[in-house]
């Protein structure tokens, strides 16, 4: 993409209403704009990041055996009356009436819709287990929308719903999602810690929030220092079809202490001494096994292996896709701007023509651009006739992993400059070598 033909409203000023660094940088880097309180438009560069995150989420859901579909954003109040949640949900629900005065709502979550769809389509135990997911916009009329996309009112969520014949099956479905979540966040360069969360009246230990550390986080978290070790998706490469290995793996991942404020264990913390860490964190995902709650209320039953009707047990599994854009920036930025992990970067390379008014320089930059594009590399090409300093500042704030700088002085020596955004390291090399290294 040529910057001269793009839409990238980068700003120098930090808007006054932006409190946290990720919100400031998202506005400065031209990723989003707020159109109403807690409602954001995704500008072209931000939209590319959102899509990359969504794709990683999708790949890991698919890998875990979940099946993608798409449910609507607008739901009928009828379904929520059936589950008993319509009145209970409260002011966070955006309630709408259509022209015939039928009660509708903008979905804050989808348990009711999926349960009714599954009820319609699943007849016997052979239709179990299943895990269905979608990636769809949600609306919650948050009391205090803030921190940009991290607590919006309209936000993009991946939500999956599992249906199982019995508790043991339900646990397997839960464990598969548990591992998928660890892999998903690791692939985005995030260290997300699973922390036991409240399960409400159902009880049990089958609910975890996945929390990423950030000073602006709304949760206070306490954890064992072992969580500070960097981990990659390969560290979570367990065979999810082997349920004993899967359970052992989940047990090992929950062995080291990690708890939110509400779930602290003073006794365990006392034993840990120096190994105890305290920080703030952002909830990026939440998994939950709730058994019969919705299936029973909504009359979902299938015929069991012996012919008797059974009520499937359900779980639900959310990931805050749009919140993750903010959370990743919270975890990866410096004084000059965003530092995107390569897996979610909107483009891999920012190609800078230092002298758009110089024919030789422009020819060389154009040539690099054409060859990188031909090699399938994602390049944002700053071909504008602007000062070099302004171009560097733009590239730094938008945080692409690599900057490839073409200037007349280098070209005289037959080299271009390659800068690594994360380390700041710069090397001079022949254009040929740069293409080889980057593609
Ligand atoms: P929070 O505690 O932050 O209000 P929640 O517990 O209400 O979140 P869930 O119902 O567990 O949220 O939804 C699943 C995921 O959706 C959350 O883990 C979070 O990543 C994301 N999410 C929830 N509310 C918002 C919001 N207002 N803006 C952006 N993402 C959100
Ligand atoms: Mg909430
Ligand atoms: Mg929460
Ligand atoms: Mg939650």
From TrEMBL:
Residues of the Aminoacyl-transfer RNA synthetases class-II family profile domain: 38-341
Keywords noted in UniProt: Aminoacyl-tRNA synthetase, ATP-binding, Cytoplasm, Ligase, Nucleotide-binding, Protein biosynthesis
GO MF annotations in UniProt: ATP binding; proline-tRNA ligase activity
Compartments, as annotated in UniProt: Cytoplasm
Gene Ontology biological-process annotations: prolyl-tRNA aminoacylation
InterPro entries: aa-tRNA-synt_IIb, aa-tRNA-synth_II, aa-tRNA-synth_II/BPL/LPL, Anticodon-bd, Anticodon-bd_dom_sf, Pro-tRNA-ligase_IIa, Pro-tRNA-synth_IIa_bac-type, Pro-tRNA_synthetase
HAMAP family, per the entry: Pro_tRNA_synth_type2 (MF_01570)
Task of the protein: Catalyzes the attachment of proline to tRNA(Pro) in a two-step reaction: proline is first activated by ATP to form Pro-AMP and then transferred to the acceptor end of tRNA(Pro).
Name of the protein described by the UniProt record: Proline--tRNA ligase
Species of provenance: Parasphingopyxis marina
The encoding gene: proS
